[in-house]
């Protein structure tokens, strides 16, 4: 075996060894994904529920809303998918199962609400995937800042953060979709989810019965 081949083999062995060392920590990534998504879906669901009549109107109106059929049913399904999804993700219970309707919710949101606005959530012409809306945003933002500097307390208005223009593209919906897709394949996570503990309990009962 040549020196280069031997070195490559040693690197491959060390790389595999690192993977084995990290195996006890394999539950941390699913846990982080779940905990990140919990407030996202809880806030989205509670907002829809607290203004449910407005949510139904937005789902059904073809002029300024989504123009969906059966808006009451669609709004109810979206609301409770997000609320129940937040609770189940927090517990790590039925993680793969709840990921499926949440994936559908994100796909529908991306396609019906955000798609026509392009990729970016916040308009920034320096960032990738800018479109005509984004390219026109800096001039509009500067005009708004000029008005606020002249007629308002600009220091107080910007004390909590800089003004931006919301482009409302698919960026966030796509990001949440990818995170849910990872949870669909990974599950709730080793040691850190009810799914894992239930699976261990079932395996224990199976060993006792055999």
Can you give a write-up of this model?
The chain is mostly helical. The protein contains 9 helices and no strands. The radius of gyration is 24 Å and the shape is extended. The mean pLDDT is 92.
Highlighted features:
210 residues; mainly alpha; 2 domains
Give a topology summary:
Blueprint (H helix, E strand, L loop, with lengths): L2 H20 L5 H23 L1 H9 L10 H21 L3 H20 L17 H20 L2 H4 L13 H16 L7 H16 L1
Helix pairs in contact: 2-4, 2-8, 3-4, 4-5, 5-8
Class inferred from helices and paired strands: mainly alpha
Q: Radius of gyration in whole Å, from Cα?
A: 24 Å
What share of residues are in beta strands?
under 5%
Number of E-state strands: 0
Mean pLDDT: 92
Low-pLDDT sequence parts = none
Give the end-to-end Cα distance, rounded to a whole number of Å: 48 Å
- Count of distinct structural domains: 2
Total count of helical runs of at least 4 residues: 9
Condensed summary:
This protein is mainly α. The chain is 71% helix and 0% strand.
